[in-house]
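Sequence, structure tokens quoted for completeness.
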Amino acid sequence: MQLALLGTAGYHPNESRHTACFMLPEVGVVLDAGTGFFRVGPRLLTDELDIFLTHTHLDHVFGLTFLFDVLYGRDLKRVDVHAEAAKVAAIQNHLLYELLFPVGLPCQYRPLTGPVPLARGGTLSSFPLSHPGETVGFRLDWPGHSMAYVTDTVADPAAGYVERIRGVDLLVHECNFSDDYSEQAKLTGHSYTTPVAQVAKQAGVGRLLLVHLNPLIVDKDPVGLDVARAIFRDTTIAEDNTVAEF
């Protein structure tokens, strides 16, 4: 299974990274719709598309407004946006408020109320995370393949979500800050390097991919990869327009 990394930054894009957007082209699934969502169109391999939103902070949903261009010239049978009911309302009432965006989007909205079946015999389940405005994480399972997506939360190896991601082949986890900014991470409801690696180790995952990176730090190692690898060896920093296999 392939995960296309279309947006790996948090808060705002920079010259090399767009904000949160991850796609599994083989099964027509997108996780979050940040500014990287404009990259979805050329990667569409299916005639159905499911977009799952962790929460409605703008860096995770603004790309929904690109949906007309993403679908241009492509005849899809179904486009569904999945989010908690309050988040669906926020999108419809605020992001798509007529003075901000004057037309409705070519999609249907599906409130998340439990596990969602995916193509090829897969299932997506969601679980709560701690973050201002409330957010959820996702676990996706297929026979022989599994991954989890955890973004916008304060990583903690004792957190309840650790059991929900146990044993996945690939953990995609936000790491907005290095250890030098641990207090800022806690203040803003985000994660820093050491606890993220500890979560991966505690959960017994196969690989750890660090995302939602601070857009103000543009070097190749914005979080201290050596610190993470000292705790959990198989850790990688995500890069836009690359693919992770699991």
Observations:
- The chain has a mean pLDDT of 97.
- The helical segments are 58-61, 67-71, 85-95, 161-164, 182-188, 193-203, 225-231.
